[in-house]
Design a protein that fits this description.
The radius of gyration is 24 Å and the shape is elongated. The protein is 60% helix and 10% strand. The strands form 2 sheets. A 5-stranded parallel sheet has the order 2-3-4-1-5. The protein has a two-stranded parallel ribbon with strand order 6-7. It is of the alpha/beta class.
Length: 320
């Protein structure tokens, strides 16, 4: 959510956070007291974790000194113990600026820190609590060691609801003088899957090419195949026509510039919508997961995708 269109119209505030009402209310309560415990923001990408940290700092420190009292680091850039003993410790030991009694260190992607770095961070949090608060942003809170979790209040962010994303997309479209067609809006929801940042970025790329945002435009600019095309591919394979399914597969790979993993993910989503018995869906999901694992391990994607289509063909013969 921390994108150019958000900063363009006004400074980020807690009220700008979309789809996380309970978290916003808790953060507002902390902002009123001008104090806050150490926090862990956990949840999927694009759900407002970074935006919440920045908005919270702005409302606590005010517009004049918030940047001086707020230090943001991305732990995925520097994952070792050196970042804890260096940058973080140096910032934590200095006094806050202005009338506030503490500063904030925001550590993005903190779950990528090594175990040794987290152990050093635990000691730093303990030592500098009197003048510094830590906000850790993670995708998986379970990757943070227990001593740190016990020192923090955990806020769990959930994927943004479709209606909230639609409302925000309409607001952006109105301000940017864009026209989003109904199928274009549904495509944005399909592509984003609860990720507001992804929805905004896909819309922004589409808007750079055309002021009218359609489903076809979004599929082309986001390298996402149309669900109808993927469903046709699967039904062709289940119908027993392997060569036709193979040709459709390569048409998708060439037309949309997809990788093997992209195809697998979209096939996985479509399987649940097929009109076949649940027992057969389970078997198809198993084969799809096995193929995805092989691709991640470095197997040839063309051979693996053709192998998966062959499995679909064999399954289709059992259904006939």
């Amino acid at each position: 959510m921390h994108d150019i269109w958000i900063e363009k119209y006004r400074p980020i505030k807690l009220d700008d956070i979309v789809g996380q009402e309970s978290i916003v209310e808790r953060l507002k309560a902390y902002a009123k007291t001008k104090n806050v415990p150490h926090l862990i923001f956990a949840g999927p990408a694009g759900t407002g974790k970074t935006t919440s940290a920045i908005a919270r700092a702005r409302e606590v420190f005010g517009g004049e000194f918030w940047k001086q009292n707020f230090h943001e680091l991305n732990a995925s850039d520097e994952r070792g113990i050196g970042i804890i003993r260096g940058k973080i410790k140096d910032f934590a030991r200095t006094a806050p600026i202005g009338k506030t009694s503490f500063k904030i260190i925001f550590l993005d992607e903190a779950d990528s820190l090594t175990t040794d770095a987290q152990a050093a961070l635990r000691r730093t949090i303990e030592r500098y609590t009197h003048n510094c608060r830590f906000i850790l942003s993670v995708n998986y809170s379970s990757k943070i060691i227990e001593p740190i979790q016990s020192r923090c209040a955990v806020f769990r962010f959930k994927p943004i609801k479709a209606e909230d994303i639609k409302k925000y997309m309409r607001m952006i479209a109105s301000k940017e003088k864009l026209e989003i067609t109904p199928d274009g809006l549904e495509t944005l929801i399909f592509i984003a899957r609860g990720d507001m940042r992804k929805a905004i970025n896909v819309l922004q790329v589409g808007a750079s090419l055309n002021k009218k945002i359609t489903a076809e435009l979004l599929h082309e600019t986001s390298s996402t195949a149309r669900p109808e095309d993927v469903k046709t591919l699967i039904n062709t394979a289940l119908g027993g026509n392997f060569m036709a399914a193979r040709n459709q597969l390569y048409d998708l790979l060439i037309k949309y510039g997809l990788s093997g993993e992209d195809i697998i993910r979209q096939m996985h989503r479509i399987i649940f919508d097929l009109t076949i018995p649940d027992e057969n869906k389970v078997q198809l999901i198993e084969k799809t997961g096995e193929t995805e694992f092989r691709l991640v391990e470095g197997s040839n994607e063309h051979i693996q995708l053709e192998s998966l289509l062959a499995q679909f063909v064999l399954m289709g013969k059992k259904l006939q």
